[in-house]
Amino acid sequence: MSFTKLSSAFSVSPQISEADVERAARDGFRLVVDCRPDDEEQGQPNFHDVAEWAAKHGLSARHVPVTPSNIDDASVADFAGALATAGGPALGYCKSGRRASALWALSRAMPLGAETVLSAAKEAGVDLEPWKTRIIARGGAPAGDRGPGSYDVVIVGGGSGGVAATASLLKRRPSLSVAIVEPADVHYYQPGFTLVGAGVFKPEVTKRSMASVIPDKAIWIKKSVAEFAPDSDEVVLDDGSRLRYRALVVSPGIKLDWEAIPGLVETLGKNGVTSNYRADLAPYTHYLAQTLRGGRALFTQPPIPIKCAGAPQKAMYLSCDAWRRAGALSNIEVEFHNAGPVLFGVPAYVPALMEYVKRYGIDLRLESKLVAVDGPGKIATFEEKDANGAIIRVERDFAMMHAVPPQRAPDFVAKSPLAAESGFIAVDPESLRHTRYGNVFALGDAIATTNAKTAAAARKQAPVVAINVLSVLDGKAPHVGYDGYGSCPLTVERGKIVLAEFGYGGKLLPSFPKWLIDGTRPSRAAWFLKERLLPPIYWSVMLKGQEWLCAPHMIEKGEQPAE
To answer: Among 254, 332, 325, which Cα is nearest to 294's?
Structure first.
């Protein structure tokens, strides 16, 4: 049986036997893809048989059964997903090899261009005429001549992840055509909001115009995304227009669901209710910390996932420190209502934080979730568990409240084909490639991974995405990985920080030697880092594609072809 080569990483064949599988293994193939429905004709080996042969000879096997008249987009996506797992050259087969060829051409039309895949098929003597129109529709004009609305890479989101990934891509390959979709005019340095709330930063230092941070070589499309159409490699914008891409990078951030707590929206910025999660409210946090001299101060934290899970208590510690310095702390009852079961998710940092909880006399209330606010009446309602584990409602009056809303994936993400069950984007946690679409990557707060949702995480993710996108564009598989790194500088008092740095599974990942900064203890060096060094690093390093201290690791299985 002869194998017909369509690319360096993919060949096709008519129906194969065990001897053919053995030969494929000798020839260096790593995957066999069966494109025939079982029992299509009498005497045909079913997929179960082929999978056993493949396993016997050290190959993997996947089944993507189609008929010539029913090669739909879902089957094309399944085929692309199968090839993405190959780990080397793949062999596809059906009765004649034609269906397998069509699946390959349809799945690779956009990354390689319609002209490329059609030429490869023609040279191999494979007739793809029945699918030619679809191949051209998916692949369009040859790469470099795609016309308006078509780009090598489309990036959704102009926040820290989107801009950093754009800069990292263009730093490596300036010739790329890259479009970044972002409707906002202003880009915020969100980690600075905590220090605005403490009066350390002026609000204006945390923002710059979006135009000033988007890399010069990128095309800024000032619109919103309405939906994703990954089966046709398109993004649909809010005006109905479409952008086509060879690769897609999604970094739209997280939705702060203020409306989920009845009464909260109406009272934000007045009645003593504030939040450092909004740029315009952080100055009000500072005002309350400077003027409150008695009564009850409530600080709340919703269930995870949330953006920077340490931020709710950062505001609390800095407010307590301000009241301590003013001699007012003894007159203020401070309560921390955390919907979660622990003070902080990584145990190594809890002892140092608990020292400050005790120092400030904070009433720590775990598994207590804010569910309603009466701003004029200054009453907050929480759901807690009684001694028997039953959910009860508890009302607390307050003079001040720092509220943090529940957070979820943006609506246009949650309802899209890219979403996992959680609503967040389904990606492999190491390569950050989508679990079903091989030319889609994501980073930042909207991905369905277990890392902390922080700017520091996006900084480490950006080069991973950039390198792996280029690898996929070159017909290879992702080969560098993200370790789950996130950083949370916990501002326990003015001038001192507990610098939490950790990765997947809570593994400690310190950036500095312990003699310089022991992250498990409060330090002035960590405060200097946050106040003086991190803002310029953000604006002038991260958003410019410079990757100091964030080189990704190699994926153990190595670089793999993706055709």
So the answer is: 332
